[in-house]
Amino acid sequence: MTADTGSGPRRYARFLERMAAARPALLRILRDHQPLIILSSLSLVVAGFVADFSQNAAGIAASASIAFLMALGASVLQETAEQKDSFLDLVSIFGTIAGFILLAIAGLAMVGSLPNADLGINLVLHSVLLTLWIGVLLRMVSAHKRARSENAARPWVLGMSLALVVLASVGVGIYIVMVPVVILHGQSKAPNWMILLQYLAILLSLAALPLHHFLHGKYLKRPIS
């Protein structure tokens, strides 16, 4: 009886020692996986917030949370496993990608459930497109400045590069001005000249980017990067 009485406290003490030894590793794992933890928690918050006015968006956001949790679990198992498993890497990567896709779909579902849903969806899509175009334009400007500072091209190449940058800038500028006007009028009710200007902006930007990339890749051997 005395031996049994003494073994209990000793086991408890060893248990506490093991927990204390595991605590730094646990904190490190949680710190390394903070993005996935935050994304999963945020998805649940979004699901709870939008449940009253969009059941579809709430369900999709909750599914995004599950996808992020799957990615989190696979990543933690991969990090703590003695032998690495490529399947866990795939689950972590595809779970993260699926979570972001589901969050984007949930956002569109939320916008679609609001009054004037068409207006909201158009604003979202045009905002994303405009952000991408501005990013590409900035990279074109950076590539042109780099080539000019390194004196790595003939004058006519730099002139063509500058002309294409200006062309893309004009396209982005027209798009920035015309898209809000077209959206406010309504795509189907906007005058034809507004629609034509919008298409002209798209055409200018789409034409300038590949030409600029080809120019720098062929004559400078350093395409936009």
Provide an overview of this structure.
With 225 residues, this protein is mostly helical. It folds into two domains: 80 residues; 103 residues. The chain has seven helices and no strands. Helix 3 runs antiparallel to helix 4. The radius of gyration is 27 Å and the shape is flat. The model has no long low-confidence stretch (mean pLDDT 76).
Number of strands: 0
Relative helix content: over 70%
| Integer tally of domains | 2
Radius of gyration computed on alpha carbons = 27 Å
Summed up, the helix count is: 7
Query: Stretches where pLDDT falls below 50 for ≥5 residues?
Result: none
Mean pLDDT across all residues, rounded?
76
Distance between the first and last residues' Cα: 76 Å
DSSP strand content: under 5%
Major sheet, described briefly? none
The helix/strand series, from N terminus to C terminus, equals HHHHHHH
Describe, in short, the structure shown.
With 225 residues, the protein is mainly alpha-helical. The chain has seven helices and no strands. The chain is 86% helix and 0% strand.
Q: How would the blueprint of this fold be written?
A:
Blueprint: H1 2-32, H2 34-50, H3 55-80, H4 86-112, H5 117-149, H6 155-185, H7 192-219
Helix pairs in contact: 2-3, 2-4, 3-4, 5-6, 5-7, 6-7
